Structure formats: structure tokens, C-alpha cells
Amino acid sequence: MKKQLNLSLYLVLDPTLCGGIEGLVNTTKIAVGNGVTAVQLRAEQMFHRRDWYLAALALKQLLMNTPVPLIINDQIDIALAVDADGVHVGQNDLPVHVVRRLIGPDKMIGLSVSNQQQLSDVVWPDINYLGIGPVFPTTSKKDAAPALGLAQFSQLIIQRKCPAVGIGGINLSNVKAVIQTGIDGIAVVSAICGQRDIKFATTELSHAIYQTRMLRS
Ligand SMILES: Cc1ncc(COP(=O)(O)OP(=O)(O)O)c(N)n1
Ligand SMILES: Cc1ncsc1CCOP(=O)(O)O
Ligand SMILES: [Mg+2]
């Protein structure tokens, strides 16, 4: 099925929090069935390349007949190996123009920015979306930049020339405030991965996003 870049509710998967590859697939199945619009495999603690490949392949198969794209974090070879829909890279990963050359013109590239300088340096034609954050403190990324807070986040997002998500410490308690800034969507790890009730967690986030958008417009 043709994939859509809908960033409304972007699930960034952590296999450790989900309980391995089986948990990853189960979490994704429930989350996609209840409002998640994009999926990223981000496996910081997965050391074997074979495990990365098997996890990515399982997700590719799961999402095959859905409009939800599969994005691979950092690992270009894994994205190519499973014909994923795109790659997400940050400031310490391969440069975006190199990623574009490797994955071709039709795949999606997401880029992380954490401050004004990084945003000013973006080469817009090379990328499809931005991940801006951390918005709030997070425990899901060990080397995260300092949290922006909503005021600084709002200053950055008005300069975007492509769709963007907020990421970092976003959960049910603050999602409405993040959406009120006018951002295109949110990316979350721990607000869905490892939650006792994945369906409830996803549905509540999704409803909050759409309700806030309705009030915003
Ligand atoms: C949607 C989204 N936004 C930001 C990031 C962070 O990417 P990066 O800065 O490269 O850090 P790591 O995720 O590689 O630790 C992301 N993965 N996704
Ligand atoms: C990958 C990433 N990039 C910036 S913050 C972050 C982690 C977000 O995780 P959580 O949603 O659990 O705070
Ligand atoms: Mg990275």
C-alpha cells in the first residue's frame, strides 16, 4: 500500500521496553490499530546486526498493507535490507546528503534538530521531516540535548520549511500543550512502549491530538 507521511502520532519503538521482538511486533500491531500514524525502529541496546534485521523485517511485514511508513533509526544498511520507507538521522549520524545518495530519491529522510544553529544549518530539499527536541526531559535517550521547553520549541517550529514532530518527554499530561504550539505531530517512546495497556495509551494520545487540533483551527 502507498505510504503516507502523516506525523500526527509517531511511535519510536524501543525493543527493550517492549520486551523483545515479539513485544515490538505486538506493541506496533495494537498501536497502529489505535491511531499511530508512523513507526520508527530505534534499538539502542540491540547489538547484533541479525537482531536488527529480524526486527525490521517483522515490522516491514506487519506494516505492509497499511499506509503507515516504517522508518529505521541510524542504520542505513538495515533500511535498505528490508526496503523500509525511510531513515531517521541526527547530528552525529551520516550527513543527510550522503543518506539521500544511499537510499535514493523516493525514500523518506527525517533529521533531528535540538537548537537554533542546527535548524539554521538544515538543507531543506534533502529532508522530508524534522524531529525537534527534546521538548521535555527524557529518560529514553542517554545523550539527549537539554530540554527546550515549550517557549523555545515554539520559536524553532515556526521556522520549519517541512513537516515536523516534537519529541522528548511527551505524554498524556503534556500532549495538548505541545499540539497547541502548532506542531504537525508528536513522536513518543515511553508514552507507548512498555505501557501496561498499549491500546489505552495510544487511543488517549490520539484523541488528545485530534481534539486539540479541532480547538486550534
Ligand atoms: C522522530 C525522531 N526525532 C529525533 C530522534 C533522535 O535522533 P538522534 O538525534 O540521531 O538520536 P538517536 O535516536 O539516534 O539516539 C529520533 N530518533 N526520531
Ligand atoms: C529519540 C529521542 N530524541 C530526542 S528525545 C528522544 C527520546 C524520546 O523518548 P520519550 O518519548 O520516552 O521521552
Ligand atoms: Mg541518530
Automatic annotation (TrEMBL):
Its cofactor is Mg(2+). Keywords: Magnesium, Metal-binding, Thiamine biosynthesis, Transferase. Residues 9-192 form the Thiamine phosphate synthase/TenI domain. Pathway: Cofactor biosynthesis; thiamine diphosphate biosynthesis; thiamine phosphate from 4-amino-2-methyl-5-diphosphomethylpyrimidine and 4-methyl-5-(2-phosphoethyl)-thiazole: step 1/1. Its EC number is 2.5.1.3. Condenses 4-methyl-5-(beta-hydroxyethyl)thiazole monophosphate (THZ-P) and 2-methyl-4-amino-5-hydroxymethyl pyrimidine pyrophosphate (HMP-PP) to form thiamine monophosphate (TMP). Belongs to the thiamine-phosphate synthase family. This is Thiamine-phosphate synthase. It comes from Orbus sasakiae. The gene is thiE.
